[in-house]
Design a protein that fits this description.
The chain is 7% helix and 32% strand. It is mainly β. The strands form three sheets. The chain has a 15-stranded parallel beta sheet that branches. Helix 2 links the parallel strand 1 and strand 2.
Length: 334
């Protein structure tokens, strides 16, 4: 399965865009649990990336700079505005006052909209020439809490918005987070690697796409990885009161279909109190068979996998004009 995932991603990557993942340099900063603040340059007080930025009265301007200053388990409070995160940091160091840097997390962190602020916080991944999700978790055992944010327009082979790396045991807990218009190959917005856990309450996934140039896309919004070996630990994802709308798993240029218009699960997946509408699994451009699981595809990619799916109090309706005739678009297959 891992070989297939890698082959699918590399095939799509070579024809789309090349780039690299960047790890931000950490700066000496605060004791654990300290609040850091981020604000646009146009706000009052204005954000400005300096070696002492972060207090409420003197916020940083970029999320990357605040993250680099923060310590393990600190909290980054972002004031309303749009923050471009569409380029790699230079030499691994965040570029001050440019709002361009993606995040490669090496420490556990909470990133949230400033609870005292009114408005929307947008972390925008595009336009971008970098093939890398907005946020990557690749350091073993680290966790990320996201609250009341919008992540949009990211691009990455393994999830356009967030990658939880294989074998890392990383965890993301999201509350009222919106994922909008991301492009990935394995997971349009999020790729949950084996041993990793993603949990979301509230929020939505809208207009995300999984697509490749030779194979079909896997999970228009989210892909959950299966286990490695019979004793392995699969990826795990849970969604409660989440809305999935207009997500697509594209077919390839051959007969290969896209599967799992919103979700593809090869690991452990639980969905409760959620709504699916106008999602679609599409046929290949040279094929006649439409994809499986317009909303959810629950199935193994190889013999290691033992996918488990639980769905309760969830509405699945509507759909794009595609999907397997045997399983209507926006239905669950597997």
């Amino acid at each position: 399965m891992r070989a297939l995932r890698r082959a699918v991603a590399v095939a799509g990557l070579s024809a789309l865009v090349a780039g690299g993942l960047v790890t931000l340099a950490e700066q000496p900063a605060s004791a654990a649990g300290v609040d850091f603040y981020v604000a646009p340059a146009s706000a009052s007080p204005a954000g400005n990336d300096t070696p002492t930025c972060g207090p409420s009265a003197t916020p940083c301007r970029t999320v990357a700079y605040a993250y680099a200053r923060a310590a393990e388990s600190d909290i980054i409070n972002i004031r309303p505005g749009t923050y471009l995160m569409n380029a790699a940091a230079v030499a691994g160091t965040p570029v001050a006052n440019t709002n361009t840097n993606r995040l490669s997390l090496t420490k556990s962190m909470t990133i949230r909209k400033d609870p005292a602020s009114v408005g929307t916080v947008v972390l925008d991944g595009g336009p971008s020439a970098v093939n890398s999700p907005i946020i990557t978790l690749a350091t073993v055992g680290k966790s990320l809490t996201l609250i009341d944010l919008t992540l949009q327009d990211g691009f990455g082979s393994f999830g356009g918005a967030i990658t939880l790396g294989n074998g890392t045991g990383t965890t993301v807990n999201a509350t009222d987070v919106v994922y909008l218009n991301h492009l990935g190959i394995v997971g349009g917005a999020i790729d949950v690697g084996n041993t990793a856990t993603y949990t979301q309450t509230g929020g939505s996934f809208t207009g995300n796409t999984a697509g490749a140039t030779t194979n079909g896309g896997l999970g228009g919004a989210v892909f959950v990885t299966g286990r490695v070996g019979a004793a392995g630990v699969p990826g795990s994802a849970s969604f409660t009161n989440v809305t999935f709308t207009g997500n697509r798993a594209l077919g390839g240029p051959t007969a290969n279909t896209g599967n799992g218009g919103a979700l593809w699960n090869a690991g452990l997946l639980s969905v409760s109190g959620s709504t699916f509408g106008t999602n679609g699994a599409l046929q290949g451009t040279a094929g006649t068979i439409r994809g499986f699981g317009g909303a959810i595809f629950n199935g193994a990619l190889d013999g290691d996998d033992a996918p488990s799916l639980t769905v309760s109090s969830t509405t699945i309706n509507g759909g794009l004009p595609s999907g397997t005739p045997a399983f209507s678009t926006n239905a669950t297959h597997g």
